[in-house]
Amino acid sequence: MSQQVLAPAADQAQAIATVWQTMFWPNVVIYMAMLAALAWALWRRRAVVADAAVQARQERNWVRALVAWIVFIALVLTAYTAVSFVQDRHRLAHAPDALRVRITANQWWWQVDYLDPDPSRQVGTANELHLPLGRMTRIDLLSGDVIHSLWIPALNGKEDLIPGRSTQLALTPRAIGHYRGECAEFCGLQHAHMLLPVTVESPAAFAAWLDARRAPAATPASPSAVRGQQVFESGTCAMCHAIAGTSADSHAGPDLTHIASRPMLAAGALPNDRAHLAAWLVDPQAFKPGTKMPNPRLQPQEVSDLVDYLEGLR
Ligand code: CUA
User: Fold this and answer.
1) Cα–ligand 1 centroid distance for 289 (angstroms)
2) Do 171 and 45 fall into the same domain?
3) Nearest-angstrom CA–CA distance, 80 and 86
């Protein structure tokens, strides 16, 4: 997963990289010239001049050199300001046909909702963001508790998620691939486990993915998975989680309708496979101390059934 600021994969990150490149190389040259001038000034011997006329001429030359230097610096800073202003307009531009997404940060996971004028076509997922290549996605950022900050370095700069306010982030990806998003503002014990993996795919692949998210959860395919669904709906799981197409419909924790298709568990705390899912269900606090998920206190058979059920939710 790329996390490179200087390998931009979206228009907005390109704008930031352009500002960086514009300022970096001239600054290297200017800094080297300054060091060379300093070395020369320290090295050379100053001749003692008694002649008042020669002294006055030298003084005038120094004043001229100083004024030229000030003008040069003012021009460079003005050019930097102009580049920064233009690139910032690019970074903050909004396309009218942008795909609309809402991301809500929580301690310590991301709720991701794909908005649609038709509410029945809205899609909710968690801890994963898929984006279509070449089209702007405009994201409304909200927080459910404290201040978080979303940073996907290869796609755009940081943007804070603030309780009671809505901030915006635009992403226009230009390269298919996987990118790493992180929470970039300390938000409590598990701040480091707030990963948001981003997948940029072709518009057709994105549409197929979004359609698959719209479908209700898969029907359990084995007797153990059927028992697992019962454990989920009758136990503590359903008090916080939703699985579309079942009676579980609480949104205190991540939506789990398609959990098996996600890259990671617990917002990047664990790989998404059978063994880690089972271990997580037995003792969440051991892997993510402070997580709001309590120990569900399941019997070994219930854990096994529940894993069979959840692993079928692709
Ligand atoms: Cu959320 Cu740090």
Assistant:
1) 15
2) yes
3) 10
Check pocket membership of 270 for ligand 1, CB cut-off 6 A: no
> How far away, in angstroms, is 32 Cα from ligand 1 center?
40
Judged on CB neighbours under 10 Å (0-12, 13-18, 19+), 120 is exposed
Do 102 and 230 belong to one domain?
A: no
Q: What is the pLDDT of residues 208-238, one digit of tens each?
A: 999 999 988 888 889 999 999 999 999 899 9
Q: What is the DSSP letter of 244?
A: T
Structural domain of residue 85, as residue ranges? 1-214
Tell me how far the alpha carbon of residue 269 is from its chain's centroid: 16
Q: Give tens-digit pLDDT for 148-158.
A: 999 999 999 99
Burial readout 122-140 (b: 16 or more C-beta within 10 A, e: otherwise) = ebbbbbbbbbbbeebbbbb
Pick from 112, 108, 103, 194: nearest CA to 142: 103
Q: Which of 156, 183, 214 is at the close of a domain?
A: 214
Contact between 105 and 148 (Cβ < 8 Å): yes
Both 57 and 193 in a single domain? Answer: yes
Amino acid occupying residue 274: R
